[in-house]
Amino acid sequence: MPSRDTETWQRAPAVPDTHYVSGLVYSDPEIFEEERSKIFGKVWALACHESELPKKFDFRTIDYAGTPIIVTRGGDGRVRSFVNVCSHRGAKLVNEVSGNTRRFICFYHQWAYDSEGACVGIPQPDAYNETGLRAEDCGLREVRTDSKYGLIFINLSDEAPTLNEFIGDALEPLSPMLTGTELEVFHYQRSEINANWKAWMETNLDTYHGLMHVLLRKTQVNSSREITLFLGGHAATGGSGQKYGDYGNWAAREESLALPGIGANEMKNGDLFPNFTILCRGTVIRIDTVTPISPHRLLVECRGLGVKGESESDRHQRIEHHNQYWGFAGRNWPEDAVAAERCEATFGSGAARHQIIAREENLRGNDDGMLRGFYAEWSRMMGRPANNPFNRS
Ligand code: FES
Ligand SMILES: [Fe+2]
After folding, report:
1. Does the CB atom of residue 111 touch ligand 1 within 6 A?
2. Ligand 1, pocket-test mutation among 86, 103, 104, 113, most atoms within 8 A of CB
3. What is the pLDDT of residues 29-56, one digit of tens each?
4. Do residue 196 and residue 300 come from a single domain?
5. Structural domain tally of the chain?
6. How many CA atoms lie less than 13 Å away from 141 in the CB half-sphere?
7. For ligand 1, is residue 86 a contact (CB within 6 Å)?
8. How is residue 252 annotated by DSSP?
C-alpha cells in the first residue's frame, strides 16, 4: 500500500461520516469552551458515592469542569450541592477536599453558611443597613442533586431533565451489583493527565484497545462481549469472561466473593455520557469520572468499591483484585494514561487529522459502537458534527 501525500493525508477517511472523528474536537479552544456550557453545563455528573458522606454534615468538594462544587449531607440527612463560591466577594468558600462541619465559614471576611446553603452570619452587619443588603438574600447557589443506586449526581442546569430521565435504562444491567449489597468506597485517586478529556473516556469506550494491555491479552475472552447502546450516548457491555488463571501465578476468582448479579470471573461495564464509567470485575467495582481542565489536560477521579462490613480477609482479597488492573500501581491504569497522552501528542499539535471508529461486529467483541454512540451524542449536544465540527469542505 502506498503512503500518502499532504492532500490525501488530510482527506477524510473513506468511511461513513459517523465512523470517524476530526482531530479538532481534541484541540480547538472554541470547541473546548463550548463543551463546558453545552455539555458539562447540562448533564448529570457523578459527584461521589453515598458512602463518602456517611454522617450528617459530612462534605466533599469537587472541581467540575471549571465550576467548584461543595456536596454536603445536611442535618436533615439530605444531600445538597452548592457552587463553592462565597456570596460576598467571590472567594472559594471551602478549600478542603472533605470534612465535617455545620457551618461553612469563609476565611476572607468570615461570612457563614449552613448545610442548607443559607447565609447565617455576616460580621458587622449594621454597615449594610443603608444599602439594603440582607443575609437572607445571600445564600449559596444551590446545584441540583439527586442519587440513584447509591451514586450521587449533580447538574448545573436548573432546566435539564431529571436524573432518571437522563440515565434511562443504562445502569439497569449493573443495578444488582450496585444495590444487592451495601457498597463503600475503599480507594480514591485523582490524577491530572496531559490529554483532552475525551481521550480518557475513549480508553473506557474503545474495547479494541484491549490489545494494548498485556493483562487483557492473557486473561480476557473478547469474543463473548456484548455491547448495548442506550439513548443519550450511554452504553453497557456484558458477558465478557475473564480467565485470571491464565496469567502468571494468578488463580480464578472465588465465587464466594462475587458481587450480586455477576459471576466472580465475569465482567460488566456501564458508561454514561459524557464522563462516567463503571467497571465491575466480578468481585470489585471501579468508577471513573473525567472532567476537562484545558483542551490539553484532564482530571480523572477513580474510585474502588467493596462490600461494606465485610471481613478483613475478604476486603484484602478485593483490594488485591482491584490493584491487579487498576489504581496507580495496577497494570492497566498507567497504560491507559500513556495511551491518552500519546494521542494528545499528535492531536494536540494538529499532526493527527482524524481518528477512525469504524469497526463493526454487530455490537459484539470489539465493535466501535460505544465510541460512535458517544460521538453521536456529542454532535447532537454541540450542534456540530464530530467528523467536521466547523463544516469545512
Ligand atoms: S469573600 Fe467570603 S466573606 Fe468575603
Ligand atoms: Fe485500557
Report:
1. yes
2. 86
3. 999 999 999 999 999 999 999 999 999 9
4. yes
5. 2
6. 17
7. yes
8. P
